[in-house]
Amino acid sequence: MNRAETAKRAQAIGNITDCHVHVFEDRNRYPMPIKPAYEPPFAPVSSLLERAARASVSRFVLVQPTPYADDLSLLEASLATLRGRARGVGVAGKSTSPEALSRITWAGIVALRFVETRLPNGERMPGTVPMSDLEGGFGALLREFGMHAEIWGPLADILAQWPVIERTKIPVVLDHMAGFNVEAGREHKDFQRLLAMLRDGAVWVKLAICRRVAGTDYDVLRPFHDDLVEANSERLIWATDNPFVRYPGTPPTVEGLLQQFLDWVPDEALARRILVENPARLYRFPGPSGLTG
Predict the structure, then answer these.
(1) What is the tally of structural domains in the chain?
(2) Of the N and C termini of the chain, which has fewer Cβ atoms inside 10 Å?
(3) Tens digits of per-residue pLDDT, 78-113?
(4) pTM of the prediction?
């Protein structure tokens, strides 16, 4: 499928949602409260919209970048700018008050992110909240506000702490294709357990293929991708990770990633489910059943 064919198909699908993007602003306007683990780009909402327009992507899930830690000012301002076209995933720990959670949900933040990914030196990624914060009453508090958890980390580490997550009884989304080990192969017990959890409807997975390999040669991921789609397409959402910070190779493009997805998922109804219907339901976009016309 060439670019023109991809654009035509994307326009026909309509309301495509990129479920994992980041916004970065001028540091004088929105200072970063911590020392970043990487050099943040300048990637404001206007840049996001320009890149997305080239791929006919119209909705977004804005994920709080780690350099802003739990300062949600830019995230809230970006959601206000995008109005009904976006939802937010924020950062907040177990000391967060019910009043604070109420305020951010009104701003369009529907989930919180918990991170188990480490820096190369083994230290925790700065500006993040660990999965362990879901223990005790915090998970119950998120459930009370209708929020879900989004988790970024190696699949093995996530599975090791899965009992903590299960006890929260809230929806869980695994970032970056669930962080499985490509080199371990599809038959590895962790990937097989992930497939079983998907079949049971116990978890959601973001199909963000660009974070499982370096560069833009994704052929090795096709069998894993097919397995996930076959396991339960009702629990999959599509994502790019635009603007591709800390990318270990040639960064992809939004339109290139969408073209790759549509090549791998040629069935129109299945593609619409993952690109439009599932994110509308999970992130509560407006319209009947979360959908617009």
Answers:
(1) 1
(2) C
(3) 999 999 999 999 999 999 999 999 999 999 999 999
(4) 0.95
